[in-house]
Amino acid sequence: MLAPLSEGWPGEERLLELGLASLARWDDFAAELDAFAAGIVTSRSTVTVAVDEADARDLSRIRDWLADQGHPVGALSRAELRDAEPELTRALRPGFSADAERAVDNRRLLKALTAACHASGVQRIAERVTDIDVLPHEQVVVAAGAWTGKLVKGAPVRPVKGEVLRLHRRNGAPAPPTRTVRAWVHGRHVYLVPRAHGLVIGATQYEAGFETQVTAGGVRDLLADAEAIFPGISEYGFAECIAGLRPATPDNMPLLGRIDERVTLAAGHGRGGILLAPLTADAVVAELSGAPLDETKHTNPRRFS
Ligand SMILES: Cc1cc2nc3c(=O)[nH]c(=O)nc-3n(C[C@H](O)[C@H](O)[C@H](O)COP(=O)(O)OP(=O)(O)OC[C@H]3O[C@@H](n4cnc5c(N)ncnc54)[C@H](O)[C@@H]3O)c2cc1C
User: What percent of the chain has pLDDT over 90?
Assistant: First the structure.
């Protein structure tokens, strides 16, 4: 999801601005990559909904906070939500819609980026780096995700595990929603991202070190919460469950910038690395050309030291 508004959180005002700056670049970024893999953008617009009254109160606080930040989001009535997404549970309380947000197919995106790099003459060496000091290069950009702290001593990046499920739509099963649906379900969060042949459901969140086994409890919670908002999933087929590691920092802002004359960090993107990809690319190029972007003035990787 490219969802800086729907994932916005009071206290994370700088992350909201950074996410919006990257979202503004996304349509051009996707258009450029379209030549390498079509269909990267899979849906436009996000709707956020609540299951109970406490969830609805939390959502309305977020909506007020977004408006205070100068980014009002659209209000939806129950009838509008029912008309727009008739397969969702009828009793849901609509929160808001963010029409500028997008969802992308992350696997197609990586395929396109790999092909684009290849076409631009990037040489890929499939080897694990163990020590950046021995690399023979004048400039080094470390973009090692959750493992960045293993290459750059003291880099404050830790892994935050997350699980996602992929379901495929079987013949006769109800159609998935047309937009991304984010839901607050009795205090927990779940999202449904429509895909051409089904749905992606995510995501759990645990502090579990570098361990990436999918847990039975994670799958149960995701399915139960997703079914609470879209009962039709019980007729879908189970395609995949997978766990990954979000590279998190203490303030949830990425580490984007130089740590010395030779090494630049592009890491710590937490739950928004795909959203922040085009901004990160611009920021790295700007940093290497000696003219850092104003938009990254709060991402200095040395801000914790
Ligand atoms: C369940 C889940 C859901 C998510 N949903 C979203 C979402 O909806 N929207 C969004 O924007 N983001 C989302 N994210 C976050 C996003 O996936 C991350 O922010 C992003 O992948 C970070 O990109 P990265 O390239 O910095 O790190 P990674 O994707 O982790 O890539 C780092 C790479 O560096 C390699 N590497 C590490 N160490 C070395 C070494 N020593 N030598 C060589 N290579 C090395 C690794 O093998 C890996 O390929 C989600 C993450 C998870 C886990």
Answer: 93
